[in-house]
Design a protein that fits this description.
By secondary structure, this protein is mainly beta. A hairpin with a 5-residue loop joins strand 3 and strand 4. The protein has one domain. The radius of gyration is 20 Å and the shape is elongated.
């Protein structure tokens, strides 16, 4: 099940994003002694350590969203966040998070897993006129 990131929650802080590509292969030992490599997902997962700065109301909304909509991190979520190239929809999973109090605000620190397929930013669609039609 995929849920949508609440509009009342902000996008992550752009200057604090750390990226890593995770190896999703599993190595199985067969009876013959050989090792077989199997992919656990359709592609490599990208891991991002990201941070949000939240007010107390946003913190409460996030905790409710994580527990009930994300099902404690089991469900995938989509969010239209602003990137360096404009708004892009990201599909991600958030297995865990931590909140740190900073003055009147809260710093939400989380690791999200994103499939590379979800990183497509504004694909170009080209339409060719049908032969014999007026352009």
């Amino acid at each position: 099940m995929t849920v949508t990131w609440p509009a009342a929650l902000p996008a992550p802080m752009a200057n604090d994003i750390e990226a890593e590509i995770l190896d999703t292969r599993s190595h199985l030992q067969m009876e013959s002694g050989q090792t077989r490599t199997v992919n656990k997902t359709a592609g490599l997962l990208h891991s991002y350590d990201i941070k949000w700065l939240l007010s107390i109301e946003q913190r409460q909304l996030f905790e409710h969203f994580y527990r009930f909509d994300l099902n404690d991190g089991a469900n995938w979520a989509t969010a239209a966040w602003l990137t360096a190239l404009g708004h892009a929809t990201h599909a991600f999973k958030m297995p865990g998070w931590e909140i740190i109090k900073q003055g009147a605000h809260f710093l939400l620190v989380a690791t999200i897993y994103v499939l590379p397929v979800a990183n497509v930013i504004n694909p170009v669609v080209t339409v060719y006129p049908v032969s014999g039609s007026a352009a």
